[in-house]
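Batch job 17 of 40 flagged for manual review because the log was empty.
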Amino acid sequence: MSSPRYSVDQPLAIEVQIRQEKASALRRTGDKLEKLIVELARLERELPALSGPVRAKKLTEYQQTRASAEHERWCLIVQREAMGLWNHSEVDLMYRIPPPVR
């Protein structure tokens, strides 16, 4: 009975699966962050036309959505660092979270 041949240069099947799952997790987190940024842009466009309690409610929604976006960005950074990616300038360019609105 012959044993399977392994090469030092070739990753094991489980290593390939782990890398694929890491990449999928990054994509899912990036997708969530993108959706939150789009939602923030929509809310930001609506705010100037509002006043009173309606504006206050929409502002609270904006602040909560922004906090969620900041959390997702943090998750993305943690995942990248777990994969050995330390330069996050691409994240800053691709996922611009709008500033707080008052």
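Reviewer: the log was empty due to a logging misconfiguration, but the result itself is present. The longest helix spans residues 13-46. Unflagging and moving on to job 18.
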